[in-house]
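ok trying this again, last paste got cut off
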Amino acid sequence: MRKAVVGQENVVRGMLVALVARGHVMLQGVPGVAKTLMAKALAKSLDLGFKRVQFTPDLMPSDVTGNVILQPDRTDFRFRPGPVFTNVFLADEINRTPPKTQAALLEAMEERQVSVEGASHHLPKPFMVIATQNPVEYEGTYPLPEAQLDRFILQLVVNYPRAEEERKILRIHDAGIDPHDLESLGVRPVGDAADVDTAAEGSKNVTVSDEVISYIQRLAAETRSSPSTSLGVSPRGAAMMLAVCKAAVWLDGRDFVTPDDVKEWMKPTWRHRIMLRPEVEMEGGRTDAVLDGIAERVDVPG
């Protein structure tokens, strides 16, 4: 993936962790910071199917999930799968489409299937939604409800590249290379869907001590009782923290989770699961800063 994506190491690692943990990712960043390129490079590197849909105000649920059509040469109907029937599905600017279409993804993300006209259709394995949001442009957008945000295992912030990284990007453009032409950049598959499944199964065998389990629980409880929050992390959010840590540890070649792993993944796993009180937001409070404060208050297991 580094052949196509310059910098953004933490984001790339987070996407791989989410894939191993069988989760979905929300990428938050301004236009032009390679969010689409990262999704395409991930799919290409693992020989996975990839489809992208630009979410717009007039997008219908059937444009995502598919619909039932009458076959021209017969008298019966058949299901025509929508673009969600792939391995890596990029929902570009997901907050630009109305709630009804956003909700069409809920069943796919949670159940790995879609229901059309009363019939259920299973999605390919693996299946991962990568959604993008622009954090600075809110006009004409529909904020995702908490129930849908909770389905994303990670929210990763895609920042501007560092100076030396941006110079490298400019050199690529100066050489006349299309940064979206993965073949010309030398991106080749180094694995496949079976390898992803093997990794996901392997991460289940990572050991988590009772002390670390208790640490995750105490952190989650603190998000609920913090004076800065009106909504804390749900039990599902705590369970997703566990899955993220196990996947990250497995990718690092270790077989046990430490408190430092929990602290490392606390913000990307929980920043979209807590809601700040209005007065905290008015005073300039930030979710990441609140999570940092919670991590400082909760005793780390010895």
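PB: full thing came through this time. Residues 235-251 form the longest helix (17 residues).
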